[in-house]
Every structure is written in C-alpha cells, then in structure tokens.
Specification:
five-stranded mixed sheet, single chain, 94 residues, 35% strand, 5 strands, 3 helices, Nucleotidyltransferase, domain 5, alpha/beta
Length: 94
C-alpha cells in the first residue's frame, strides 16, 4: 500500500508518497498538468494499491478526473480532506 499527500496550488503541486511502514518513497514538485500527474503516479509498480489525499479547495476536481482516467493497472483512490480539519490534525500532532 502506498499513500500520497498532495498539496495543490495554482502554479504547482507537491506530492509526497510513503509506503505502509511510513518510509518516504518519492516526493516531487510538479506543474498542475494532467500528464505530469500521470507520470508521477506511473512510476510506482502497477500492482500496488495507492491512496492519495488532497485538500478540498476549489480546484481539486480536475485532479480527481485525471486520477480516474488513469489505466486500470495504476489505480489511485483519491480522498478529499476538509482543510479546516487538516489544520486541527496538524496542530494536534505537534
């Protein structure tokens, strides 16, 4: 199982991926373009289950569409996170 956190911005996005043991597998800043997102997620073995989370800001929908249209061998389950709750979780973890 792989887990990715996606920090989505207007001009770029940052993706960090960890394995089930919590070890960093990959991290990259990329342009917010469909092909760049596909290329990032296609670097992982096709048989691995992959979950990603992104904060639910106004421009998340295109990312969801890109991940849905990826090949069936590289599925990525996307979860939308509540930005207000993310701040609370982050503060509690310190």
């Amino acid at each position: 199982m792989l887990y990715s956190g996606i920090d989505l911005h207007k001009r770029d996005l940052v993706i960090a991926t960890m394995d089930a043991a919590g070890h960093s597998v990959a991290a990259k800043r990329i342009k917010p373009k469909g092909q760049a997102v596909r290329t990032y997620f296609e670097q992982f073995p096709p048989e691995s289950e992959h979950r990603a989370v992104v904060d639910a800001m106004r421009s998340w929908y295109w990312l969801c569409d890109v991940l849905r249209t990826m090949s069936p061998t590289t599925p990525v389950m996307l979860t939308l996170a509540n930005p207000g709750r993310l701040r609370a979780i982050s503060a509690a973890a310190r």
